[in-house]
Amino acid sequence: MLSQEIASRYKNDKTAIIQMLNAIQDHYGYLPKDEIISLSKSIMLPMSKIWGIITFYSHYKLTRPAKHPVRVCSGTACHVKNSKLLKDVFEELIEDLPEDEVSVESVACLGCCALAPVFEVNGEVHGGMTKKKVEELASELHGEEMR
Ligand code: FES
């Protein structure tokens, strides 16, 4: 099991728990439950402690990421330029797609406020989003699903 290899790489040192969780997430794209249980046993750190760490840091994911992750900025600059409304429109346009195809989440400032409102699609920044651009993005993702 990967978590055992990672634990031994860090000599089962509990203080390296963050690095171990990061390594597991880097490998899978999320933290599979069986790997976390195995890690807990390997380094003899209770699941409750590990769970506390996982839920404290927002970058840890407990579910397999969708094929196309979409992150919508909800920072101040984007919020005042209607990012929430654009997110709602986008979610409505993709609601017929399978759950594992596209995921949508709100995130804090993506660090490119001059481009507000900002969507990040597959790790790529899309600035100056408008209702028309949101519709184009949704239709592009529908096209992807057909392939
Ligand atoms: S507020 Fe959206 S990128 Fe900064």
Keywords:
50% helix, Glutaredoxin, 2 domains, 12% strand, four-stranded mixed beta sheet, 147 residues, single chain, alpha+beta, binds FE2/S2 (inorganic) cluster, 7 helices
Could you explain how this protein is built, in words?
This protein is an alpha+beta fold. The protein is 50% helix and 12% strand. It has seven helices and four strands, in the order H-H-H-H-E-H-H-E-E-E-H. A hairpin with a 2-residue loop joins strand 3 and strand 4. The protein is elongated and about 55 Å long. The mean pLDDT is 94. Bound molecules: FE2/S2 (inorganic) cluster. FE2/S2 (inorganic) cluster binds next to helix 5.
Summarize the structure.
This protein has 147 residues and is an alpha+beta fold.
Averaged pLDDT, please?
Answer: 94
Tell me what the CATH architecture of the largest domain is. Answer: 3-Layer(aba) Sandwich
Can you summarize the main beta sheet? Answer: 4 strands, mixed
Low-confidence segments, given as residue ranges, are none
What gross morphology would you assign?
A: elongated
Helix content: 40-55%
Q: How many distinct helices?
A: 7
Bound molecules: FE2/S2 (inorganic) cluster
Quick one: how many beta strands? 4
Global Rg? 18 Å
The overall number of domains is 2
Please give the order of strands in the largest beta sheet: 2-1-3-4
Q: Would you tell me the structural class of the helices and strands?
A: alpha+beta
* Terminus-to-terminus distance: 33 Å
Classified in CATH, the superfamily of the largest domain is Glutaredoxin
SSE order: HHHHEHHEEEH
CATH domain class name of the largest domain: Alpha Beta
